[in-house]
Write a structure and sequence with these properties.
With 371 residues, the protein is of the alpha/beta class. The chain has 15 helices and 10 strands. It has 2 domains: 261 residues, Aldolase class I (TIM Barrel); 89 residues, Recoverin, domain 1 (Orthogonal Bundle), CATH 1.10.238. It is 45% helix and 13% strand. The structure holds acetyl coenzyme *A (ACO) and 2-oxoglutaric acid.
Length: 371
């Protein structure tokens, strides 16, 4: 498969998550962190939103980062002016392509999609900008209409077309079919933009890549509108580990960047969240512990260090004798078989009572001889 470009939109679609509002300083730090780990492109915000957003974008643009910076725009000339005022050299222009979106935005006038696109594309082209075009709600659009819009965008100077599953209604098989059709007819690259309303944002992003898309939108932790977007850490690790595609991104900083976004957004990630969740490399169950103690690959798809994590073995309701014995050995304690079995039973009872795993001290306190 060809190289894949990550175009992270935490600063645009990530921040559109209800209740999230990054400060200028947070946006600048985030962009610097993403640049440092080698993310190729950032959708850096919406210049037309006004002065604070424009200030953040301008400040990031002035840093001279290696990562490419793209501003999000409606098909409106004043939006392009706002992007230019921030010093951006790359703009993304979005047009609605489904019947329902065209109805609410352009009063059902499909010709308006082409007219506005042509107008803003020529306006941006005349100013020497790199232009990406997005088909908002591509997944619910008529396939022929979507293709006509994408071909028109290509003819009028767009350098990339974004396929958007705006309300996250696709599954990977349908995504593959739709994106393959688009890719086969276009010369310009196709970018995937997927939402997680049915929990398939990452899977659909990957399906689009399998179908020939060469760019993909992500957000850190999957932060984004409603149920969020395809998560940076999931897409990059799946590309690397499932398809053998190295994006060149330093994945060892994923946990640190995830923590930064948790703090800046005020949105925590659940313990079971892939890659960055607290439990992603934590083992408690007896059978898993028994396996991991001999060979971690029995229950880990890749090593935690690869994404800035550490393996944790904890004692709890599901723990068996091997894990308990291992922890006791670390404290220089050896029990016979009967004592170990009694201890495992006591661990189960206390875990149920406390409704959590036990600390090492709590485990040691259960040993009769130590009480
Ligand atoms: C699927 C997506 O994520 S799309 C991106 C969504 N992101 C955001 O909306 C976040 C930032 N948005 C904003 O700050 C504001 O919406 C602004 C600055 C862009 C516009 O603000 P306002 O002038 O107050 O308009 P408001 O937000 O109420 O309505 C949106 C307007 O944009 C128009 N519009 C929406 N999409 C497009 C488009 N792709 N091209 C052209 N016009 C569009 C709507 O028809 C409506 O037009 P109207 O002002 O003539 O009625
Ligand atoms: O870029 C576009 O056209 C819209 C992107 C978007 O946020 C979406 O469709 O959910």
């Amino acid at each position: 498969m060809p190289p894949i470009q990550i175009n992270d939109t935490t600063l645009r679609d990530g921040e559109q998550a209800a209740g999230v509002a990054f400060t200028v300083a947070e946006k600048v730090i985030f962009a610097t962190l993403m640049d440092a780990i080698g993310v190729q492109e950032l959708e850096v915000g919406i210049p037309a939103m006004g002065s604070t957003e424009a200030e953040a974008i301008t400040e990031i643009n002035n840093l001279g980062l290696k990562t490419l910076l793209t501003g999000w725009n409606r098909a409106v000339r004043s939006d392009i002016d706002a992007s230019l005022a921030c010093g951006l050299e790359r703009v993304h222009i979005s047009v609605p392509v489904s019947e329902i979106q065209i109805a609410v935005k352009f009063q059902g006038n499909c010709q308006s999609v082409f007219d506005r696109l042509r107008d803003t594309l020529s306006y941006a082209c005349d100013r020497g900008l790199y232009i990406s075009v997005g088909g908002e709600d591509s997944s619910r659009a008529d396939d022929n209409f979507l293709l006509d819009v994408a071909l028109a965008a290509q003819d009028w100077g767009a350098s990339r077309f974004r396929f958007c599953d705006t309300v996250g209604i696709l599954d990977p098989l349908t995504t593959h079919k739709k994106v393959q059709q688009l890719v086969s007819k276009l010369i310009i690259p196709v970018e995937m933009h997927t939402h997680n309303d049915f929990g398939m944002a990452t899977a659909n992003a990957l399906a689009g890549i399998r179908a020939g898309a060469t760019s993909v939108n992500t957000t850190v932790n999957g932060l984004g509108e409603r149920a969020g977007n395809a998560a940076l850490e999931e897409v990059v690790m799946a590309l690397k580990r499932i398809y053998g595609i190295n994006t060149g991104i330093d994945t060892s900083q994923f946990k640190e960047i995830s923590k930064f976004v948790v703090r800046a957004s005020g949105c925590d990630v659940p313990p079971w969240k892939a890659i960055v969740g607290d439990n992603a490399f934590t083992h408690e169950s007896g059978i898993h512990g028994h396996g991991v103690l001999q060979n971690p690959a029995t229950y880990e798809p890749f090593s935690p260090e690869e994404v800035g994590r550490e393996r944790r073995l904890v004692i709890g309701k599901h723990t068996g004798k091997h894990l308990v014995t291992n922890l006791l050995q670390q404290h220089g304690i050896t029990l016979n078989q009967t004592e170990t079995r009694s201890l495992v039973d006591a661990v189960r009872d206390l875990s149920v009572e406390l409704k959590r795993s036990l600390t090492p001290d709590e485990l040691l306190n259960l040993i009769p001889n130590l009480n």
